[in-house]
Amino acid sequence: MRVALLLTAGAFAAGCVPAPTTSPLPQAAATSLYMPRAVRQAYLKGTRSPDGRPGTNYWQNRGRYNIAITALPPDRTVLGSEEITYFNNSPDTIRTPVIRLFLNIHKPSAPRNGRASAAYLTSGVHIDSLAVNGQLTPWPGSENTFTFQQLRLATPLLPHDSVHLSFKWHYEISVQSGREGMLDSTTYFLAYFYPRVAVYDDYNGWDTMPFTDVQEFYSDFNDYNVAITVPANYVVWGTGTLLNPSEVLQPAALERFNRSFTSDQTINVATRADMAAKAITRQSMNTWRFRAANIPDMTFNLSDHYVWDGASVVVDDATHRRASAQAAYNDTATDFHHMVQYARYALDWLSHNWPGVPYPYEKTTVVEGFAGMEYPMMVNDESYADTVFSRFVVEHEIAHTYFPFYMGINESRYAMMDEGWATTLEYLIGISRLGKERESAFFDRFRVIGWATNPTPLGDLPIITPADGLSPGAYGDNAYGKSALAYLALKDLLGDATFGTALHAFMERWHGKHPIPWDFFNTVNDVTGRNLNWFWNSWFFSNGYIDLAISTVTRTGGGYAVSIDNIGGMPTPVDLQARYADGSTDVIHETPAIWEANQRRATVSIPTRKSLEALVLNGGIWLDADSANNRWSQRP
Ligand SMILES: [Zn+2]
């Protein structure tokens, strides 16, 4: 997240999918769920399958990146060189690949959503040289090159061939830090720092969405070797395996570092005193080498005074694999002294509960910065006086490990699959610590009420609206709370066991790939054997909001029939709180299934022999926009 932004009737799978020879599209999905023409083409080409699986013709491109960086703080210049081998697995001939240069967001004239202070501005990324297949090639960028630049290849890149790109570049790190930049004069957070080939995919072609600092990222799964050269006494934390700890750490620090990988207890790998005494790194320029395979990005932090904690936790009971939890921070940040244990809790809980998939990487490192931002194996969080809030933020960011990173989500277009899932997981893990009542109150205040009570048309834009077409306010509603409410309503509808089965099937089918929302909808329809298109339509493709009303209450032979109008149109769960004449009370819970037959009106039966005195409709976290029509009583 950015904290700042917040201040597929019947047996669908069994009988309704026509054979691919007659039509590649499932009739139900084709007729009732909107599908953009470009996505429809992907189904026609067989890169995606109507049952929700990757299609038999599915492909994605990838790169091998060898990167060398030199940073000599307080000099703000960061120097880089890299060798990229880019593999074209597509059936297309590539003539004009697109290179991403995210840090050009700092150029004074770059299009960006917010205002930029002088401390944010830099001259951007300077490409010092480019070679294509070993041939020096003029860099085609200009002063008007911002966050992406098209190249024209002298020799087209054929299907199933590769191209070799060599870049040398430098940039001045931004004084004002956001998702990246200087954390202080000798602590640099390096993210999005290297030229990379943009995603070229089967449903969108080249990803040329400008990065304007609202919508986030979309990355291929690449293999990386990154070497970061820094002065003595600088520690480098980052994505991937640190390959040469014995070359860069002094023996005592190395022993503590190694021990942290098997320790439940927090080990202070480097204290403030250790850093001041220059007792951590080898006393020379050091090159810290990191490697990670099949991962969407690499991010690093370097500092000469941040302290360093580590511990670990079992994330996979079958293999007893442990994941490392590390923290890097100013010793003055009191909440960060607990951060390794907060992170351990998150790794453990997420692995064993929801999503209930073993944490897929070897570690996470939580760095004290200013972003409230996720990166593969890295988190950049602010320090807070309120440790409840610190835990909330770090749990959210670590939850992002699954969505977007493990799942390869296009965050910039389908933020509902990124922030929406992270927010869902944040709520569920929050309940495990705070209890449902307290967590729900927090969730309502922080994630729901802004949307629930927003009467403007921006709040009503369907969740499926491409995130890159949304203003920040509408993006915030759709990406976070609204999407999470949809997934949580699905969980209530299906029940935990079926919801888990469907979610795991989706994750198993698509991790390491690039799923889009239709892949999720079709997978859930397929795995549950139910056509849930009525549910997807209402939650994701409609202008709905949440407003239920008690319409009529009728005495029946066996009790009462309560007619509920769904004014807003969202198929939410319903809790009917009943009070009887004898003073007793009851809560009747209905899942969103009550809206399957008719999305505008449902009847709830209350089987009772008692005399009903009053009823209250309580949506819980599905906050009702107008609660004035949520009450009924025998004597008005
Ligand atoms: Zn997030």
Features:
636 residues; alpha+beta; eight-stranded mixed beta sheet; 25% helix; 27% strand; globular; binds zinc ion
Provide a descriptive summary of the structure in words.
With 636 residues, the chain is an alpha+beta fold. The strands form seven sheets. It has an eight-stranded mixed beta sheet with strand order 5-4-7-2-1-13-17-15. A hairpin with a 2-residue loop joins strand 22 (373-375) and strand 23 (378-381). Helix 8 crosses helix 10, helix 11 packs across helix 12 (472-494) and helix 12 (472-494) packs across helix 13. It is globular, with a radius of gyration of 26 Å. The site of zinc ion has 5 residues, from helix 10. Zinc ion (ZN) binds at residues 1, 396, 400, 419, 422.
The number of helical segments is 15
Structural class: alpha+beta
Bound molecules: zinc ion
The strand line-up of the biggest sheet is 5-4-7-2-1-13-17-15
Query: Overall pLDDT, averaged?
Result: 94
* Distance, first to last CA: 46 Å
Major pleated sheet = 8 strands, mixed
Radius of gyration: 26 Å
State the share of residues found in helices, binned by percent: 25-40%
The gross shape turns out to be: globular
Poorly predicted spans: 4-31
Number of strands: 30
Indicate the proportion of strand residues: 25-35%
